[in-house]
Design goal:
The complex is a heterodimer of chains A (295) and B (283).
Chain A: H1 2-40, E1 42-45, E2 48-51, H2 55-58, H3 63-83, H4 85-95, H5 99-110, H6 117-127, H7 135-142, H8 157-181, H9 186-194, H10 199-227, H11 231-237, H12 249-259, H13 263-287
Antiparallel strand pairs in A: 1-2
Helix pairs in contact in A: 1-13, 3-8, 3-10, 3-12, 4-8, 5-8, 6-11, 8-10, 10-13, 12-13
Chain B: H1 2-36, H2 41-47, H3 62-69, H4 74-106, H5 112-124, H6 131-141, H7 147-151, H8 158-169, H9 173-181, H10 186-197, H11 199-215, H12 218-223, H13 232-238, H14 247-267, H15 269-282
Helix pairs in contact in B: 2-14, 3-14, 4-8, 4-11, 5-8, 8-11, 9-10, 11-15, 13-14
Classes of the chains: A mainly alpha (295), B mainly alpha (283).
Chain lengths: 295, 283
C-alpha cells in the first residue's frame, strides 16, 4: 500500500515540477504567437476586427519598412563585427598576467553593462549634444572639425546606436570569452610550445578553434539582441528619428501597434521579424558548422 | 631567451597601461554622469555635458534634495515601484524556475527532452516580437497599469530554468536516495535537501534577475500608464522632453538609479560572473 503511493508520487512528481513552465509557456508564449498569426490576417480598429486575408502582408513593403529592416541588419552586423573580435583580444590579454589586477580590470570593463539603457542614452545624448561646447564636439574642434549635430543630424544615428551597444556590451562579452578561454587546457599550449609554435600559431591553431562554442553562443545572442533592438533608439529619438535613420523593426512594430493602433500590420511585421531572426540564426549556425555531425 | 625575459615585464606593463587607458575611456561617461548630477540642469539641457562640467569643483547637492520633494516626490514613488517589482519578480521567478529546472534535471520522464528543447527555444524568442499579443492579453486579464501586468509574463524565466537544470544535473543522486530512505516525499526532498545545495545557483540567478528587472524598459513602458505606477526607467524616460525643464531631476535621478546595481555588483561580483559564464559555455 505504502509502496504504491510512493510509486505514484514518483510518477506524478516530475510533471508537477515542470507544470509552472508548461502553463506559462502556453499562456505567455504559445497563445500570443498564435494570436499574432491570427491578428496579422485581420484589419483591427478599436472595437471591431475583420478578416482581410493577406492584405497586411501585401502593403508591408513600404519605404519605412525597408528602412527599418536595413537598419536592423546594419546594426546587428556592425555590433557583431565589433563585439566579437575586440572582446576576444581583450579577454586573451586579461587571461594571463597578474591575477588580482586582471579581476579588477574585468570588473571595471563590466561596469557599463550595469547602467540601464535609459541612463546610458541620457549620458550619450548629453556628451554628443549638438552644441559646440559639448564634450565630443570640443574634441572634434581640437582636430579642426566643426560642431556636429550627432543626435538629430541623421547620418550619425547608426554610429550612436552602435557606440552605445559597444559601450554596454564589451564587458559582458569579455566575461563570456574569458570563461571560454579558461576551459582550454593549459597542456595544449605547453605541447605546442615544445613543438616550436609561435604566439600567432598558438592563437590560430588552439585558441580560436577551442573558443568556437563560445563564439557561436555570443554570435547567436548578438543576432537575437541586434534584431530585437528598440530601447536605445527610443531613448534617442522617442520614435521619431530624422529620416527614420534610427528606426528598427521593433521600433516599427511599436509605432504601428501602440502609437497608430494598427494591430494587423504590426502583427505582420512581428512575424516577418521572427522569420528573419530564425533564418539568420540558421544561416549563421550553418556557417559555423553547428549542425555538422562530429566524425 | 635573455632578451625575452627582459622584455616580458615591459610588455606586461605596456599591456596594463593600454587596458587601463581603455578603461578610463570606457568609464568616462559614468564619471560625467556623476559630476553632471551636481550641476544645474538648465545648462546641461542647453549645452550638453561640456569639459567645464567635468572639473570636479561644483558639489551642489540641490538636485538630489529635489528628488525628494519634486512634484510630490514622484521620483521616490518610481524608486519604490522599482524596488518592489524587482524584489517580487526575483523571488517569484527564482522559486518557480528552480522548481522546474530541478524537475528537468533530475527526473527521467516522457517528454523531458522535448520540454528541454522548448525551454531553449523560448530562451531564443525575443519578447519584443510578442509585445502586441501580450498587450491584448493583459487588457483581457484586466492587468494593465498594475504590478501584476508587469510581472505575469515573466514569472518563469527560461534562462533561469536552464541554469538551475544544469546545476541540478551535477548534484549526486545519493542525496535524493538518502532522502527517500528517510521517508521524505519528492517535494520535501527538493525543499529540504536540494534548495540549500543550490545556494550558489540562487545567488547567481538572483543577481541576474534583479538586474534585468531593475533595468527593464519596453514591457513596463507598455503596461504602466499613469505616473504613479512608473518604474525608474519609465519615469526617467518621461523626463526626456524636448523642453528640458526636468533635467535636474533626470540627471541626479539617473545617477541614483544606477548606484544600487553598482553596490550589488561590488559585493556579489563572483555571482554576477558565474551567472553569465554558464550561458557562455553551453554553446
Amino acid at each position: 500500500m505504502k509502496n504504491r503511493s510512493f510509486h505514484s508520487s514518483m510518477k506524478r512528481a516530475p510533471y508537477v515540477f515542470v507544470a509552472p513552465f508548461v502553463v506559462s509557456f502556453l499562456v505567455f508564449y504559445f497563445y500570443p504567437i498564435v494570436n499574432t498569426v491570427w491578428m496579422s490576417f485581420q484589419e483591427i480598429v478599436p472595437g471591431e476586427s475583420r478578416f482581410i486575408g493577406g492584405e497586411n502582408y501585401a502593403k508591408l513593403f513600404s519605404e519605412e519598412f525597408v528602412k527599418a529592416v536595413s537598419n536592423s541588419f546594419a546594426y546587428t552586423a556592425l555590433t557583431i563585427l565589433i563585439l566579437i573580435p575586440v572582446p576576444i583580444v581583450l579577454a586573451i590579454l586579461l587571461n594571463n598576467g597578474l591575477k588580482r589586477l586582471n579581476t579588477v580590470y574585468r570588473a571595471l570593463f563590466f561596469l557599463p553593462s550595469l547602467v540601464s539603457v535609459v541612463v546610458a542614452g541620457t549620458i550619450f545624448r548629453l556628451m554628443f549634444a549638438g552644441s559646440s561646447k559639448a564634450v565630443i564636439n570640443t574634441v572634434g574642434h581640437w582636430f579642426g572639425l566643426g560642431p556636429v549635430d550627432w543626435v538629430m543630424g541623421g547620418s550619425t544615428a547608426m554610429f550612436l546606436l552602435v557606440l552605445v551597444a559597444v559601450w554596454r556590451w564589451v564587458g559582458v562579452n569579455i566575461v563570456y570569452f574569458l570563461s571560454g578561454l579558461q576551459n582550454i587546457p593549459e597542456e595544449l599550449y605547453e605541447a605546442a610550445q615544445i613543438d616550436g609554435a609561435g604566439s600567432l600559431q598558438k592563437f590560430l591553431k588552439i585558441t580560436l578553434p577551442l573558443l568556437k562554442p563560445t563564439i557561436i553562443f555570443v554570435t547567436t545572442i548578438s543576432v537575437f539582441g541586434g534584431f530585437a533592438m528598440f530601447e536605445e533608439s527610443y531613448i534617442f529619438w522617442q520614435g521619431n528619428s530624422p529620416n527614420n535613420s534610427g528606426l528598427t523593426i521593433v521600433g516599427l512594430i511599436y509605432q504601428k501597434g501602440f502609437q497608430l493602433g494598427d494591430f494587423g500590420i504590426s502583427s505582420a511585421i512581428g512575424l516577418v521579424l521572427m522569420l528573419i531572426v530564425f533564418v539568420v540564426s540558421m544561416v549563421q549556425l550553418n556557417l559555423f558548422g553547428f549542425f555538422k555531425k562530429e566524425e | 631567451m635573455i632578451v625575452q625575459s627582459r622584455l616580458d615585464p615591459l610588455l606586461r606593463l605596456l599591456k596594463y597601461v593600454f587596458l587601463g587607458a581603455l578603461i578610463v575611456v570606457l568609464l568616462f561617461p559614468i564619471y560625467a554622469l556623476v559630476l553632471a548630477s551636481f550641476r544645474p540642469g538648465r545648462d546641461l539641457m542647453r549645452y550638453g555635458i561640456s569639459f567645464a562640467n567635468l572639473v570636479p569643483n561644483v558639489w551642489d547637492g540641490k538636485n538630489f534634495f529635489n528628488l525628494l520633494v519634486d512634484r510630490g516626490g514622484r521620483y521616490l514613488i518610481w524608486f519604490g515601484n522599482s524596488v518592489f517589482l524587482s524584489a517580487l519578480q526575483t523571488t517569484v521567478s527564482l522559486a518557480l524556475s528552480s522548481f522546474v529546472g530541478y524537475g528537468l534535471g533530475v527526473y527521467h520522464f516522457r517528454g523531458r527532452n522535448g520540454l528541454l528543447m522548448l525551454v531553449l527555444f523560448v530562451m531564443m524568442v525575443p519578447l519584443q516580437i510578442l509585445i502586441l499579443p501580450l498587450y491584448t492579453l493583459m487588457i483581457g486579464l484586466g492587468t494593465m497599469n498594475t504590478y501584476w501586468g508587469v510581472l505575469l509574463p515573466f514569472v518563469v524565466s527560461p534562462f533561469a530554468i536552464f541554469f538551475f537544470r544544469q546545476y541540478a544535473v551535477s548534484i549526486p543522486k545519493d542525496y535524493l536516495d538518502a532522502g527517500r530512505i528517510d521517508g521524505l516525499g519528492e517535494y520535501s526532498i527538493f525543499f529540504r535537501i536540494i534548495t540549500p545545495l543550490m545556494a550558489p545557483a540562487f545567488g547567481a540567478m538572483a543577481i541576474l534577475t534583479a538586474q534585468q528587472s531593475w533595468n527593464s524598459f519596453l514591457w513596463p513602458l507598455i503596461v504602466m500608464r499613469t505616473p504613479e505606477m512608473y518604474t525608474l526607467p519609465i519615469g526617467l524616460n518621461s523626463l526626456l522632453t524636448p523642453y528640458g525643464n526636468n533635467y535636474d531631476t533626470l540627471i541626479a535621478g539617473s545617477c541614483l538609479a544606477t548606484i544600487p546595481l553598482i553596490v550589488l555588483f561590488v559585493i556579489f561580483q563572483r555571482y554576477f560572473i558565474s551567472g553569465l559564464s554558464t550561458g557562455g559555455i553551453k554553446g
